[in-house]
Design a protein that fits this description.
Blueprint lengths: L6 H6 L11 H5 L5 H12 L5 H17 L8 H11 L14 H8 L4 H31 L5 H11 L2 H7 L9 H14 L1 H27 L5 E3 L6 E6 L10 E5 L5 E6 L5 H17 L7 E5 L3 E5 L12 H18 L3 E5 L8 H15 L6 E6 L2 H10 L3 E6 L1 E4 L2 E4 L4 E2 L7 H7 L2 H13 L2
Parallel strand pairs: 1-5, 4-8, 4-9, 6-7, 7-8
Antiparallel strand pairs: 2-3, 2-5, 9-12, 10-11
Helix pairs in contact: 3-11, 4-11, 5-7, 7-8, 7-10, 7-11, 14-15
């Protein structure tokens, strides 16, 4: 089963990004093969919602991290192998009766380009299989009893098939005469093409596991522990944004008795960054990948939905406020369909006046409070909304990101504290930037004598 997630959430968390090099996906994409990159992308597009599947994938990546191995295959082998296997036109099949003097002459002068392409494909497939056999033999003792043992067993079955014996008797580097190429062409491209494709899939998965494991080791990411969904908890320590080099870590603990996190703080205090950090950690945890944190336990969710950078829908003629309303409606409908969701909403109803935003924030958040099987993180600038909720809901965890004043200069700690902020420093920041002085001086210049 896949985690329910949508484009807005993927965009909010910058999972793929408008430019590949600044996305979360780009952090992990150290793959050496096109096939590996495609599998990695599929893992990102379809996070898991099954505790066994998540812990199994996480365990495999952890195994490869501990193994500390490099990808043992030459990257340029795979394009040649895939191109070769994709060509199933019977007219290109090599046959023994075509081993004529003319063919030998063309081969000698380098004119037989079609044959050379086929020979390169055959040799590439064979080198991949031989390298895979050697790699599997090397890691087999350490894989016993690990989550990777199942994949290893299936690879061994495919490699031990009678039709593979002839290939695996060859030595590296592969050197074939014409008659040998004919025999292997029949074997690899026609008789057992599907088995070869399945083995390539396992190689691409190895590429992904080693890629992600390498990132985890280099960046110090940790492997979360997935728990059954009916526990409805999230315990994360030292979470931070994986793309920040000097990130400030934070802790958060969500339970059914405290399943709403109500976050306040001044502008620039770090609310959005914290919410993105948390959302990315929840997302990666459901892919079975390591996360930027010190420790994490989480109950598997049915879906992850965020609203952090919600744009106006100009094509539909919707205002920002109405777009927010439709977004909340979508979440409400998902709450009816799904057993448990993780929902992040940054600045509920920022697109309307303060009075309506206050009333709507209190109403929606208190309605969220009636869903103890789900987890919510809601931020707002409207301190009064938090004060009202404190008196009517007993399952809300009130936290804030503080602003310390050093004279007239605001300093941000980026560390969560318990309670509701009392910070109101907007005018201080405006005055510090000299905006009013610029406007006044500008007015004098325009209206002066």
């Amino acid at each position: 089963m896949s985690l329910v997630i949508d484009k807005q959430t993927l965009d909010d968390l910058n999972i793929f990004g408008k430019r590949d090099n600044d996305s979360v996906y780009a952090i992990f994409n150290r793959t050496h093969t096109r096939g590996g990159a495609e599998i990695l992308e599929q893992m990102f597009r379809y996070p898991l919602s099954d505790v066994g599947a998540i812990n199994n994938r996480s365990g495999i990546i952890r195994y490869f991290k501990d193994l500390k191995t490099n990808f043992p295959f030459k990257g340029d082998l795979f394009d040649a192998a895939e191109q070769y296997l994709a060509n199933t036109d019977e007219r290109s099949r090599l046959t023994h009766h075509e081993n004529t003097l003319g063919r030998k002459f063309n081969n000698l002068i380098g004119a037989n380009t079609e044959y050379h392409q086929l020979l390169k494909g055959i040799s590439s497939v064979m080198e991949i299989l031989l390298t895979l056999r050697n790699f599997i033999d090397r890691i087999a003792p350490s894989a016993t009893g690990t989550p990777y043992a199942k994949d290893l067993h299936e690879i061994k079955i495919l490699l031990k098939a009678p039709e593979m014996e002839q290939v695996l008797r060859e030595k590296l580097p592969v050197k074939l005469d014409y008659d040998g190429a004919v025999d292997y062409d029949k074997l690899l491209r026609y008789a057992h093409r599907e088995q070869i494709k399945q083995l390539l899939y396992y190689v691409y998965c190895i590429d992904v596991y080693i890629s992600v494991a390498t990132v985890a080791g280099q960046r110090g990411f940790i492997f979360p522990e997935a728990l059954e969904s009916d526990k409805h908890i999230m315990k994360i320590e030292g979470v931070y944004h994986p793309r920040l080099t000097k990130a400030i870590p934070n802790d958060l603990h969500i339970t059914p008795n405290s399943n709403i996190v109500f976050l306040t703080g001044a502008n620039m205090a770090g609310k959005s960054t914290f919410m993105k950090s948390l959302g990315i950690a929840v997302f990666l945890a459901h892919t079975g990948f390591p996360v930027a944190a010190e420790r994490m336990q989480f109950s598997v969710c049915d879906g992850l939905l965020t609203t952090i950078n919600l744009p106006d829908d100009l094509n539909m003629g919707y205002s920002h406020f109405y777009t927010e309303v439709l977004r909340v409606k979508k979440m409400a409908l998902q709450l009816e369909r799904s057993r448990n969701l993780f929902i992040i909403f940054d600045e509920l109803f920022r697109g309307t006046n303060v009075k309506d935003a206050y009333e709507a924030t209190v109403a929606i958040t208190s309605a969220f409070a009636g869903r103890p099987n789900c987890m919510f993180v809601v931020s707002t600038h409207i301190i009064e909304a938090g004060e009202s909720l404190m008196s009517i809901c007993n399952n809300i965890n009130f936290v804030y990101l503080p602003t310390r004043m050093e004279g007239e200069k605001p300093v941000y700690t980026y560390r969560l504290e318990q309670g509701i902020t009392e910070d109101r420093h907007g005018m201080i920041i405006i005055n510090n930037e000299g905006i009013l002085d610029i406007l006044k001086n500008g007015k004098k210049q325009i209206t002066g004598p």
